[in-house]
Structure formats: C-alpha cells, structure tokens
TrEMBL record:
UniProt key word Endoplasmic reticulum: no
Domain Peptidase S9 prolyl oligopeptidase catalytic: 456-669
Gene source species: Alteromonas arenosi
Record key words, sorted: Hydrolase
UniProt xrefs under InterPro entries: 6-blade_b-propeller_TolB-like (IPR011042), AB_hydrolase_fold (IPR029058), Peptidase_S9_cat (IPR001375)
Protein EC: 3.4.-.-
Protein name: S9 family peptidase
Phylogenetic lineage: Bacteria, Pseudomonadati, Pseudomonadota, Gammaproteobacteria, Alteromonadales
Gene Ontology molecular-function annotations: hydrolase activity
Uppermost EC category: hydrolase
Domain of life from the UniProt record: Bacteria
Amino acid sequence: MTTINNNMDIKYVMNHIKSIAPICLSLTLFACSEAPTTNAVDNTTVADQSAVTNEPVELIPRELIFGNPTYSSVQISPNGKMISYLAPLDGVMNIWVAPVDALSAAKAVTADKGRGIRGYGWVAGMEHLLYVQDKGGDENFLLYGVDPTTGKESAYTPFENTRVQFLASDSDIPGKQIIGINNRDPRWHDVYELDIATGELTLLFENTENFGGFDFDNDLTLRFGQKSTSAGGAEYYKRTDDGWELFLSVSPEDLYTTGLAGFSEDNKTLYLQKSVGRDTSALFAMDLATGEETLIAQDDRADIGGTWRDKDTGVPYVYTVNYDKNRYFAMDERGEQILKRLNERFEGNFSRTSATDDESKWVVLNSQSNKVATYYVWDRGADEFTELFSVRPELADKTLAVMTPEMITSRDGLTLVSYLTLPPGADTDGDGRPEQPLPMVLNVHGGPWARDSYGYRSSPQWLANRGYAVLQVNFRGSTGFGKSFVNAGDLEWGLKMHDDLIDAVDWAVEQGITQKDTVAIMGGSYGGYATLAGLTFTPDRFACGVDIVGPSNLVTLLDSIPPYWESFRRVLELRVGDPNTEEGMAILQAASPLNKVEMISRPLLIGQGANDPRVKQAESDQIVNAMQEKGIPVTYALFPDEGHGFARPENRLAFFGVAEGFLATCLGGRAEPLGDDLQGSSLTVPVGETYVEGLAEALASFSAEERG
C-alpha cells in the first residue's frame, strides 16, 4: 500500500519505480508540450465532416499535448531555499534548480541526452538530489545523484542488468538512503544503506529469505519482510533477535486491499490498511506493544488512499478517498483548517506534491479536467500562495474538454465508475450528452490492477479535440473500489472483464453518445490486450483498434515475465491463469487473442517498444506474423529505443500522429497532418504503412538517420 508520508523524500516521489503491479501503462505519462509549428486549423484532413461538431474548436497541435511539458514534477528542497523541477534541455527532460526567491536564475543540473529523466527527488533532510535512469526502456533503473550547488554528479549503482528499489529514508537521519539492489540474484533485492556524501554502499540484509518487499521504521531499521504465498496471498514477517517470525497473514482475497502503511514517529504505532472482515480497505492504528488495533478511517465505497501526517508525531490528520473523484477528509481540527484554506483558494483538484522538512512551505498542484495544472508555493506561516509554473502554459488559452464521472451498471449488477469526455461544444444544453451521436473511442486503462481517475488527461483531451467522445471504464479488476470488485476480475481476462467494456459501450449507445458502428477501442498494456480481445472475441463491436504494448498470448506473457517479478509470479498465475495446470492452461489459451486471430476483420494499429521487459516485442511480433499469414491487414509501429511505452517526445509525437491518421480513416474525426512529426523519432513500420493515410509519404520524407 502506498502511503503519502510527511517526509516528501525520494522514496515517495519515485515510489512508482518499485511498484510490483505488472503490465501497467498509463498513457497520461506521455503528456508533454512544446510550441506549435503550424496553424492546425488550416491543415486539417477530415474524412467525414459529420463526425465533428458543427463548430469545431481550434485543432490543438499534437506537440502541445504529447511533446515535453514546459515544467513538471516541481518540488521544494528540504530547507525551503530551492525549487527543483523537470524541464527540457535541448529537447530532453532534465532536472533544473532555482533559488526559491529567484526563479529566473534557474539552471539545469543534469544533462541527459537520451530518453530524459522521469523520476527524481530530494534526499530527506539534505540539499541533494537523486534520480534514476534506465537504458532504452529496459526498466533496469540505476541510481544517480547530483549536488545542486556544485553540479557534481555521482553514479551510486554502477552495475549492469540491475534494478534499484527505494526502500526508506528519514529527514532526521540526513544523507542516508536505504535501497534494494538485485545484482546478486535478479529475482530478489538485497538491502543496502547508501551514504549520499561518500557513495559508500553497506550491505544490511542479504535477501536469502526471498522477500518481495520490506518495511522500515523511522530509525531506518528493517522491521518487516513480505513474501507471496503459494495460495496467492501474502505473509509479513517481523524481524526478531532470533530471525523472523510470522506477523500477519493476508489471504488472496485481501491481497490488493491489505498491507502495512508506516509507523508513528516513536515507532510504537504501526499503521495498516486492511480489508479483513470488510470490503473496502480501511486505515487502522496498531499498538505494537499490545497488538490492539483501532479503526481510524474508512469509506464504504472506496479504499482509503494516502494520508497527511504530523511531522513530529507521524499521526495522520488528513486522509484521501478516490471513488469518482479524489477527496480529502480531515481527522482532527488541524486537518479541517488546512482543508478549509485549500478549498477556499483552489477550484478543482489540488494535491500536496512536496514540503520542507519543517512543513512551513508546501508545493501545491492545482488542476481541473479542462484546465492545465499549475504549481504554487504555500507559505503557511504567512498564509501566502505564490504561483510558480503552469505545466503546459501553451494550452492555457485553448478550449479544453470537460471530463464527467458516469456510473454504469454491468450486466450482473456491478457499478463501473467511468469517465466521459466530450468534444467542446458537443453538449450545448448542459445535460452531459452530445446533441447528436459522435464517433467514440473506448480508452482502456492498463494494469489491469490499476484504475482510471478524474482530472486532466492527455489522451482524452487529444481525442476529444479531434471530435471523438471518449469513454474510460473502471472494469472489474480495477483497484480502489474494495476487494470484491478487484477480485471479481480473477480469471476473467477476455471474459467478464471484457463484458464490462461491452456493457459500457452499450450504455453509451443507449444514451445517444455514439452509435454501435462508430466505436474504436484503444489502450496500452492491459488496455492493449483489451483492444486485441475486442477485435477477436467481439469482432463486430468495434470499428477499429489501437493496441499499445499489449500481450497477444497469455501463455508466452507469463513465460517471459522479468526476473524481479518472481515474488509476484504466483499471484499472476492465480489471477490470470496457471500454466502449470491443465485447467489453467486452458483458461490462458482461451483468453489469448493470438489463438483467434482469424476473427479480426477490422483495422488494427499496433505500437511496440523493442526493449519492453514486461510485454516483450514477441507479443506484438507473433500476432502481426499470424495476421500476415492469413492475409489480414495490420499496421505495426515499432520503436527500437523504447520500452513499455514511449518516453522520448519524438517517439510519442510519431506514434500518436500515426494513431490520429489511423482513427481519422476509421472513424472520420479530425486529423493534423503528420508533417515533420516523424523527424527525430526511431519509428519503423515493418508492416502496413500504406493503411494509414500519409504515413508512407512521411516515412519516405525522412531518412532513417533523420528519424533517430
């Protein structure tokens, strides 16, 4: 369970890097921006003008949506003297630092020239920065540091074929970082203490116990180790003077909704998020001396999310719940006062992204679904808010689309929390429905043990601007809605999970949002699988599909998982299908789109990174080859320098430019010409370049060298 700790250190800033949930791709990670190069309104190709609203708004250049952001990941240093952020340097995302009172004096302190830096943070209690980087998307993240004053960089883990995990740090122990390194055995991470000043690594625990996770107290002492069980659950072991003793057993049904959530500052209270004996995950406080548990936060509709905690005691005073929208709830008078002030100051969403060690200054991010996000510094003593940066200032004067939550009922009675985004101007009477049916894109999230959430998202904005309704569905198996909902997805790939998507499409047709023959399906990772499943299992339901790094064969997918997922293997087998049993193998075979490739009768675009360690290139290769053998058209966009998604902005622009032309041909929406969007990208199109209007010509316009 991820808990928002009071100390906004590197562990929490880059927690996504050590996430064990596999096959999870969020297309919103690709959202970026740069200045437009053409007047897109005057360079629009529209296959069917009826697919666009009567008075379409300005067509926003793809570069403003998928190029690099102007500013992102803004943080304040522990002593509050510096502001850091990610911004382009020569077109590549790097770390910049400025005095908090002289932002114009900002300077880049890194000089990455490849895929850019995507995860970084301040060392707890120390004016020093850490960041991680892999090679070409292979997800072997190594750890680097930089002194923001001198610019001196350090390579803390100069190893090959190694993946670093952030485990613990504390502002009261500055300069010490606990990390996991898997260079002894790629399946298991050993625990090391890193001295930031000297770079010295000290082995604290050799992981011969095969733990898949660890928990440390505020003294940076290893207290618990966690491992998966053969039944698909988890066990937490407490470290003692004599070794390890079982502390907590978690059944398979509670796996995604139960876990440890940190300590009070004196290490006497352990916080847990548990769903044992209930459906949603609630927050409990356990007295470690007596074992007594006290319920301190709960919600009947959704799991407890993060908490804000007192810097001196570690006691939570605010918790979050994300059902249809992320909401904050006060746990005491202090929390009430803080939330009241933030609600007075901001409309839409707000979140605390960073704070000084003494919590005198916060960085707050404010956003709305149809407005670009903006960072502020809140001086809490003076009660003053100072605007810092807008993430994409070039979008500030653009007309963006509004996202609305929708509750859709599945055929067997589940509530599917979903999000509808309509093109600006499509809903003239304000009832949340277009005046006439629109072509629609069903945009399926990855994971599948993840979720879609409310807010500004790049893909829905892009698609809505092109004239499409966009529907995002939290199908069964999605997380955050309690254990019964996530467990309802077990062994249901291509079955009830897919039924939920079809039910959502039927709902959209009944509501007059779209028509049954003008719906495309699109997604990344599991969403890519859902696309392939849609075109094979229900071939008459979708006009076309866009699959991004989606698995085509669940047997080969499980055979090729990365070694550092070993602790999660049994969970995958029990929730997707067990290839070691006859019954499990039958489930996997039946749910694999590759085995029904002859059913594909609608256009398909596939995007793949050659270095993807999660869904390997072979997953796309084999379905493309099978389609070719059967004479079924397919367009295959392959990027040799990418992994599980497209990190380089040149590659994002290239792929989404191709996807835009593909969808325009299929659904009749608006499309900005490819122009020079392929320049600098590594795009190769082994198959099907003639199926997307203008693609063959664009490829011919740039040599392989010009395309990176």
